[in-house]
Amino acid sequence: MPEVAQNRADTQFEFITFSAGGQDYCLEITQIREIRRWTPVTALPHTPGDVLGVMNLRGAVIPIFDLSARFGLGITPANERNVVIVASVGGTTIGLLVESVSEILSVEKSAIQETPDIKSDATRHSILGMISVDDSMVRVVNLDAVLETGAGSSL
């Protein structure tokens, strides 16, 4: 790879943007395995309210989280337009129910701003940074925190 192309790859990130709880979020494209239409899941007893159940993904059983509920923004209403983002974090595959997927963003590393200090450890841990897009802010999700955060935590 030419040196110029390598330097560009080291400073640019690609994200998939999506909506959950009426808010804009994104994940690094390298964390996403696929995007699927919403299909009913198999509920499990005694799971937190933000864990919808499990789905069979080509022989692997994966948990499905309602990202809006996980972030304390309310339950995602059932809708055929909803999608499940299948993502991988630390060798674990999970599904995230979101309202919609929007676009792919290519941004310079310098364009990712720090999460503001709002006296919430859960927010600082769950949101890696903020990206300004037009007139809105897109939050960069920390997938590790999605797995660690307790049910109903408010961000």
Describe the protein's architecture and organization.
The chain has 155 residues and is an alpha+beta fold. The protein contains four helices and eleven strands, in the order αβββββαββββαββα. The strands form two sheets. The protein has a six-stranded mixed beta sheet. Strands 3-6-7-5-4 form a five-stranded mixed beta sheet. It is globular. It starts with a helix and ends in a 7-residue tail after the last helix.
* Total tally of structural domains: 1
CATH first level: Mainly Beta
Q: Uncertain regions: pLDDT < 50 for 5+ in a row?
A: 1-7, 150-155
Task: Tell me the number of strands.
Answer: 11
Annotation field: number of helices: 4
Q: Provide the gyration radius in Å.
A: 16 Å
CATH architecture descriptor text = Beta Barrel
Strand content: over 45%
Strands of the widest sheet, in order across it, are 8-1-2-11-10-9
Query: How would you sum up the global shape?
Result: globular
Residue share in helices?
10-25%
Which structural class best describes the helix and strand composition?
alpha+beta
CATH topology: OB fold (Dihydrolipoamide Acetyltransferase, E2P)
Give the overall average pLDDT. 86
Written as H for each helix and E for each strand, in order along the chain, the element string is HEEEEEHEEEEHEEH
Described by strand count, sense and barrel closure, the largest sheet is:
6 strands, mixed
